[in-house]
Amino acid sequence: MTGNSDKPKNKMGMLLKNDFLASSRVISLVYIVEIIAFVFFMIIKDRGNNRMLALGIILNFAIPFLLVFVSLFFVVYDFNKSLYSQQGYLTYSLPVTAKQLLGSKMIVYGLWMCVSYVVAVFVWGYLASYAEGNENVKMADVALTLFGMPSIAHIKVYLFYYMIMFFVILFSFISMLYFAITASHMRTFQNANFIWAVIICLICAIIMIIMIAIVDKNIFISFLVYDEGPTKLVIGKKNLSDGVSLPMSPIFYLIIQDIVLFFITSTIMKKWINIK
User: Fold this and answer.
1) Interval 113-140 mean pLDDT
2) Which of 28, 37, 93, 121 is the most buried (most CB within 10 A)?
């Protein structure tokens, strides 16, 4: 067990360093693949070979997704291995608190997820900028407007919004997995901890979906995207005749949920964990 909160806190830096080094050995390999794919696209983008150009675009669109999901897999795998396998005896003997152990995992892997997200935004943003310089794309933008559909500029705003939403949901999913894995190693659930981890995670996911629907229905915080003029954040209902309202309240709810799950998970780690 991790002991009391009076343990020295100067080991947190070493904990962060070890978690970062352990994770970088695997995740950095995918970044190398992304760098190679992006360099490949930069080399062939102006050479007039449409097949190679299409291949470069596909690779640079798909690999950032792969990067995010590889990061997610390793986040879950390393959390379970380092805390709840035989390695857990060594981890829990470290002179750090449960909050520090969990916080280190959340900080390091949250950082990896953020970096993965930034890489995806950069690559996709570059692809979008490249497309905007193409005359066929400019003509498509005019056609979209004529048919009453969002312009490419607005589509970029929507994509950015949904990428943020995707990242926040992904991070919340990690928080739920950490909670479910930790709760499943309590003595009551330990004999079938994998099954219980799945059940607990599913229950949390159902609760999250219900709460998001309730929050979205009753708390109105929106990002307004006008057909003409600037976008802005508003609190309260606002009817739009010339734009789209993108709800922000679910994002704020998920952030609060992650904070609550962090304290619940760290409390279970401190008081009720039973390592095999």
Assistant:
1) 70
2) 37
Residue 156: closest CA among 119, 121, 115: 121
Measured CA to CA, the distance from residue 196 to residue 84 in angstroms comes to 14
pTM (predicted TM-score): 0.76
Residues 93-114 as b or e (16 or more Cβ within 10 Å = b): ebebbbbbbbbbbbbbbbebbe
Tell me which residue of 27, 20, 22 sits closest to 66, measured CA to CA: 27
Residue 106 tokens read as: 């959340």
pLDDT digits (tens, 9 = 90+) for 96-125: 889 999 999 888 888 887 888 788 878 887
Q: Which of 160, 98, 73, 149 shows the shortest CA–CA distance to 125?
A: 160
Average pLDDT value over all residues in the chain? 80
Mean pLDDT over 4-12 rounds to: 55
Alpha carbon of 108 to those of 12, 124, 162, 186, 239: distances in Å? Answer: 12, 24, 24, 25, 42
Encode the chain in three state secondary structure.
CCCCCCCCCCCHHHHHHHHHHHHHHHHHHHHHHHHHHHHHHHHHCCCCCHHHHHHHHHHHHHHHHHHHHHHHHHHHHHHHHHHHCCHHHHHHCCCCCHHHHHHHHHHHHHHHHHHHHHHHHHHHHHHHHHHHCCHHHHHHHHHHHHCCCCCHHHHHHHHHHHHHHHHHHHHHHHHHHHHHHHHHCECCCHHHHHHHHHHHHHHHHHHHHHHHHHHHHHCCEEEEEECCCCCEEEECCCCCCCEEEEECHHHHHHHHHHHHHHHHHHHHHHHCECCC
What percent of the chain has a predicted confidence (pLDDT) above 70?
Answer: 79
CA distance 222 to 207: 22
